[in-house]
Design goal:
The structure is a single chain. The protein is of the alpha/beta class. The chain has 2 domains: about 140 residues, HUPs (Rossmann fold, 3-Layer(aba) Sandwich), CATH 3.40.50; about 130 residues, Elongation Factor Tu (Ef-tu), domain 3, CATH 2.40.30.30. It is built from 9 helices and 15 strands. Helix 1 links the parallel strand 1 and strand 2. Helix 6 packs antiparallel against helix 7. The protein is elongated and about 70 Å long. About 30% of the residues are buried.
Length: about 300
């Protein structure tokens, strides 16, 4: 038997954490197991306007499991056409006895199910329902959309504040053209969207902290996101590449998790490689000063 909550939980931000903590409390009070039914992608993935996920589903699942939840990951299309009456009945049949959600929660075909329906019909069916008001920051609702907006603007500290932790990007290192190595700044190219579509931040240079999966310790670095406009390339597509400070070694094939900390500068098309190298040297000097002053 479960206390359940349902959603995308993209980012598992402070607003989500507020709902999840209440779900844990209700599960403890009712002596039931806490359950999350998590959808891999939001509706925008299927109807248009989708820019990418803040966090992949497996990272969201990991965060929630560490909080104490059982997590079921589903595709939204599985329940897309289920009428809200049947949707609620299915939850009850699977053992859901308590339910926690935000005030704007909807469910079922055409989103006809809402909190009013849960409060009336759900409670009549023996369901304990707890509806929470939105969590707000400086008068604004903490939401995945708001966090995505900040990330796209390069306002990483604002995004991280709403997340309650540094935003992370992750993926396997793949071999590219070795451009960074030739410039004296060997970079690890990371495929962040190999398995699921992930949001790209504003193009430019970022201060990051990374970890190689399976290894201890952390690495400070500079991440570049963008189209590398200084170079002539047959196919221009956004790339995520990281230069780790004071690291020497082969990272190809390794899985890397990156904490994105600060936006340093926008992407620039330089006239030649010498100008680019000078800019990268300045980026590294600036990054080392920030790390020493604020993070060590």
């Amino acid at each position: 038997m479960y206390v359940a909550t349902i959603g995308i939980f993209d980012g598992v931000h402070k607003g989500h954490q507020y709902i999840l903590k209440n779900a844990l409390e209700l599960s403890q009070n009712l002596k039931l197991a806490p359950l999350i039914i998590m959808f891999k992608y939001p509706a925008e993935k299927y109807i248009g306007g989708f820019e990418g996920l803040i966090l992949p589903s497996w990272r969201r699942k990991d965060i929630c499991e560490k909080m104490g939840f059982k997590v079921l990951i589903k595709d939204l299309q599985e329940v897309w056409g289920v009428p809200h009456q049947e949707y609620l009945d299915n939850l009850i049949k699977m053992g859901v006895k308590g339910f926690v959600c935000g005030e704007d929660f909807t469910f079922g075909k055409d989103a006809y199910g809402n909190v009013d329906y849960l409060k009336t019909v759900g409670r009549n069916k023996g369901l304990v329902v707890k509806v929470l008001n939105d969590l707000k920051k400086y008068g604004n609702r903490v939401s995945s959309s708001a966090i995505k907006r900040e990330i796209k603007l390069g306002n990483i500290p604002n995004a991280n504040e709403m997340l309650g932790r540094p935003w992370t990007l992750e993926g396997k290192v793949y071999e590219d053209r070795h451009l960074g190595f030739k410039l004296g700044f060997p970079t690890a190219n990371i495929d962040i969207s190999e398995r699921e579509e992930i949001l790209l931040p504003k193009y430019g240079v970022y201060l990051v902290k990374g970890q190689i999966k399976g290894q201890s310790g952390t690495l400070w670095g500079l991440m570049n996101v963008g189209l590398r406009p200084t170079f002539i390339e047959e196919k221009k597509e956004p790339k995520v590449e990281v230069y780790f400070l004071d690291f020497f070694g082969d990272l190809y094939g390794n899985y890397i998790i990156i904490e994105v900390l600060e936006f340093i500068r926008e992407e620039v098309k330089f006239e030649n490689e010498k100008q680019l190298i000078r800019a990268m040297e300045k980026d590294e000097d600036y990054a080392r000063k920030i790390i020493q002053k604020h993070y060590l």
